[in-house]
Each structure stands twice: as C-alpha cells, then as structure tokens.
Amino acid sequence: MTSITETFGCSAETLRKWVRKADRAAVPEHAASEAAADRVKALVRENRELREADEILRQAGAYFAQAELDRRSKP
C-alpha cells in the first residue's frame, strides 16, 4: 500500500477511502444510495444558497423602501 500511495502522491487514508468508495460502488444498492445521498447533499446546498439570496433580497427591499420613505418625508 505504501508504494501505491507514493505512486499516486496521496496519503494511506485517502487511498483507503478510495478503495471503500469503489467497493461500495460495485454493489448496485450502495451506488444508488450513495447517488441519492449526493443528490440530497446538493439539494441542501442549493436550498441554503437560495435562502441566503432570499434574505439578501429581503434586506435590500427593506433598505430601499426605507430610503424611499425618508426621501418622501424630507421637504
């Protein structure tokens, strides 16, 4: 295993993770569940990004609404 890690320039732990992932991918049910887990992870990330964008837009709207009120209240 040491010679392989030296060849690829990675740590032994990284190589172990690759082997485990390849073993799981060889079994169809694990591949499907891993694909589903990856999809869920991507959707959670997208959801978080959309919530952040929504919050930014909400704050910007409040800022501009307040600026408009301030502009109208000045003589």
Strand content: under 5%
Identify low-pLDDT runs: none
Q: Overall 3D geometry?
A: elongated
Major sheet: size, sense and barrel closure? Answer: none
Radius of gyration over C-alpha positions, nearest whole angstrom: 25 Å
- Termini distance? 79 Å
Structural class: mainly alpha
Chain-averaged pLDDT: 87
- Level of helix content? over 70%
Number of strands: 0
Element-level helix/strand string: HHH
How many separate domains make up the residues? 1
So how many helices? 3
Protein name: Transposase-like protein
InterPro entries: Homeodomain-like_sf (IPR009057)
Structural summary, described in words:
The radius of gyration is 25 Å and the shape is elongated. The chain contains three helices and no strands. The model has no long low-confidence stretch (mean pLDDT 87). With 75 residues, the protein is mainly alpha-helical. 91% of the residues lie in helices and 0% in strands.
Structure summarized in a few sentences:
The chain has helices at residues 2-8, 12-26, 28-73. The chain is mostly helical and 75 residues long.
